[in-house]
Amino acid sequence: MDPTVAVVGPGAIGTTVAAALHEVGRTPRICGRTARERLELRVGEDRVVVPGPVRIDPARAAGAVDLVFLAVKSTQIETAAPWLTGLCGADTVVCVLQNGVEQVSMVAPHLSGARVIPSVVWFPAQARSDGSVWLRGQARLTLPDAPASRVALEALRGTRCSVDLAMDFTSVAWRKLLQNAVAGLMVLTGRRSGMFARADIAELSLAYLRECLEVARAEGAVLSDDVPREIVDGFRSYPADMGTSILADREAGRPLEWDTRNGVVSRRGRAHGIPTPISDLVVPLLAAAGDGPG
Ligand SMILES: NC(=O)c1ccc[n+]([C@@H]2O[C@H](COP(=O)([O-])OP(=O)(O)OC[C@H]3O[C@@H](n4cnc5c(N)ncnc54)[C@H](OP(=O)(O)O)[C@@H]3O)[C@@H](O)[C@H]2O)c1
């Protein structure tokens, strides 16, 4: 029998996963903050409509499910926690679909009994002004190769969202974190991926990434010296108008995930005694851009 699934946070990533499940007849329960009748995903010429309604009252979560995909922003975990209470039983697995390397430590305190697995979300998805979500790449997740990941693998089997299991999840997660950290520079310039074509931005990005790499290695990630260059080359290969979710949040005046995407490097660097001068400049600027005052 297919596992029962709920998606908490039907935004860009949550809608993509909900649509992938719905397309193969495994329509999830949808739990959000804003009431809506349906979700809509656009992929090229395809349009997938996921029937709702989006539930907005955690007191009416309607009982435990086998699997929760938690796709709220890291800044929204506290306020979404009542959903976890309503949807989790002793055997529930919560798969966190977020950026960052602290997913388990941030979500686990909100669970009693349920297991939590982190993920790396590889695909770009963008909310559009008409309420639909535009999937701008191949939907793909990486999960740790652990028993609890099996239920998520099973739920997404045969869907448009592929799942890889990583033996060394720490390295994969930190590699993605490095990509997220440098993408944060787009918030400071108000520009998209095209800005990495500039030699001065490429040079700054490489220096920042080398600093992040040192912290990642201290955290146990096994990543080669080539990673900073690969990441910068990646941004240079994207369409010039490709943004990042932290830039979309900045443009919309929403809170920023600066702490989980950038602050973590200075925090973990400090814990290991590694100097992080570039982070120490970037992080307060991102924090002020997101949180003010002013
Ligand atoms: N978008 C991407 O391309 C991308 C790629 C890789 C990783 N990520 C990461 O994936 C995570 C999700 O990002 P996203 O872009 O999907 O964000 P998003 O579009 O803002 O989606 C978040 C969703 O959570 C909902 N929400 C907020 N508070 C809630 C609550 N208390 N209870 C239930 N739902 C709540 C929001 O509702 P409202 O509709 O009311 O705002 C929204 O639907 C982030 O960590 C992001 O960094 C994103």
TrEMBL record:
Top EC class of this enzyme: oxidoreductase
Domain Ketopantoate reductase N-terminal: 5-146
SUPFAM superfamilies assigned to the protein according to its UniProt record, in alphabetical order: 6-phosphogluconate dehydrogenase C-terminal domain-like, NAD(P)-binding Rossmann-fold domains
Pfam family, one: ApbA
Gene3D superfamilies listed in its UniProt record: N-(1-d-carboxylethyl)-l-norvaline Dehydrogenase, domain 2, NAD(P)-binding Rossmann-like Domain
InterPro entries, per the entry: 6-PGluconate_DH-like_C_sf, 6PGD_dom2, ApbA, Ketopantoate_reductase, KPA_reductase, KPR_N, NAD(P)-bd_dom_sf
Keyword Cell membrane in record: no
Keyword Iron-sulfur appears in the UniProt entry: no
Organism domain of life: Bacteria
Pathway recorded for this protein: Cofactor biosynthesis; (R)-pantothenate biosynthesis; (R)-pantoate from 3-methyl-2-oxobutanoate: step 2/2
Segments forming domain Ketopantoate reductase C-terminal: 169-287
Substrates-to-products reaction catalysed: (R)-pantoate + NADP(+) = 2-dehydropantoate + NADPH + H(+)
UniProt record similarity statement: Belongs to the ketopantoate reductase family.
Protein name: 2-dehydropantoate 2-reductase
Organism: Streptomyces rugosispiralis
